[in-house]
Amino acid sequence: MSDYLVKALAYNGQVRAYAVRTTETVREAQRRHQTWPTASAALGRAMTAGVMMGAMLKGDSQLTIKIEGGGPIGHILVDSDAKGNVRGYVSNPHVHFELNAHGKLDVARAVGTNGTLTVVKDLGLRDYFTGQVPLVSGELGEDFTYYFASSEQTPSSVGVGVLVNPDHSILAAGGFILQLMPDTEEKTIDEIEQRLKSIPPVSKMIEKGSSPEEILYELLGGQDNVKILETLPVSFVCRCSRERIADAIISLGAEEIQKIIDEEGKAEASCHFCNETYEFSKEELEQLKKFAERE
Ligand SMILES: [Zn+2]
């Protein structure tokens, strides 16, 4: 079952809503980075929020999220776009703790609570938007909720969750974002707040087989209340390529490339985001050196 996201309006346009299943996407991230369960949950939650925030953009715009909480996983970096592509990594993937007091993966302990959540939107034509907020919980859902309220002045509710199997593979992942328009009635807000208190965690709903549409129906008081506007396939996609790595090697300069040839006889470079390794033989390095000499 491949991942997808839905965009919707509810309560006659008073509420904008997004929901996504990211099980396969987070599974791919876990497989590539070999993250341990708590780190998988942290990365998966950030990627899930990231792919929904990407879907709020238009055209070729892109989004980068950086979370630095001072915890043992180091920083989390997530890139996404308006087309459902997302990629991400944590600096220390081998982090795992006992479950917390709520019986959940202790994401706040892995991320840390003393730091910042930064969002950079590349809107094209050198038009950038940057927003930064202090982390308020380290569990990430609440931190994104705070980000929307504080940095984008949009009252929101963000739910993101990841369930991990005993063998470290991903069992289920997904999330939702609800955003209130300025004219939302008190009654609507109360209803949504009540439901948010009573629904199961979003990761559990995904595990039970709920689709993104069904998650929104449950959150927003049934199918009649919700108008689905668009669905978007979602997957882990990296923008790296052999050509880009070769360009990076060329930019080191001829002298530096010669040093690598003399000392290593070959070059190996991996992409932070997807952990793909690219190897360049001595002959290929000689070629790249010629390019570097011409620059
Ligand atoms: Zn890559």
From TrEMBL:
<comment type="similarity">
    <text>Belongs to the HSP33 family.</text>
</comment>
<feature type="disulfide bond" description="Redox-active">
    <location>
        <begin position="271"/>
        <end position="274"/>
    </location>
</feature>
<dbReference type="InterPro" id="IPR016154">
    <property type="entry name" value="Heat_shock_Hsp33_C"/>
</dbReference>
<dbReference type="InterPro" id="IPR016153">
    <property type="entry name" value="Heat_shock_Hsp33_N"/>
</dbReference>
<dbReference type="GO" id="GO:0005737">
    <property type="term" value="C:cytoplasm"/>
</dbReference>
<dbReference type="InterPro" id="IPR000397">
    <property type="entry name" value="Heat_shock_Hsp33"/>
</dbReference>
<protein>
    <recommendedName>
        <fullName>33 kDa chaperonin</fullName>
    </recommendedName>
</protein>
<keyword id="KW-0862">Zinc</keyword>
<feature type="disulfide bond" description="Redox-active">
    <location>
        <begin position="238"/>
        <end position="240"/>
    </location>
</feature>
<comment type="function">
    <text>Redox regulated molecular chaperone. Protects both thermally unfolding and oxidatively damaged proteins from irreversible aggregation. Plays an important role in the bacterial defense system toward oxidative stress.</text>
</comment>
<dbReference type="GO" id="GO:0044183">
    <property type="term" value="F:protein folding chaperone"/>
</dbReference>
<keyword id="KW-0143">Chaperone</keyword>
<dbReference type="Pfam" id="PF01430">
    <property type="entry name" value="HSP33"/>
</dbReference>
<keyword id="KW-0963">Cytoplasm</keyword>
<keyword id="KW-1015">Disulfide bond</keyword>
<keyword id="KW-0676">Redox-active center</keyword>
<dbReference type="GO" id="GO:0042026">
    <property type="term" value="P:protein refolding"/>
</dbReference>
<dbReference type="GO" id="GO:0051082">
    <property type="term" value="F:unfolded protein binding"/>
</dbReference>
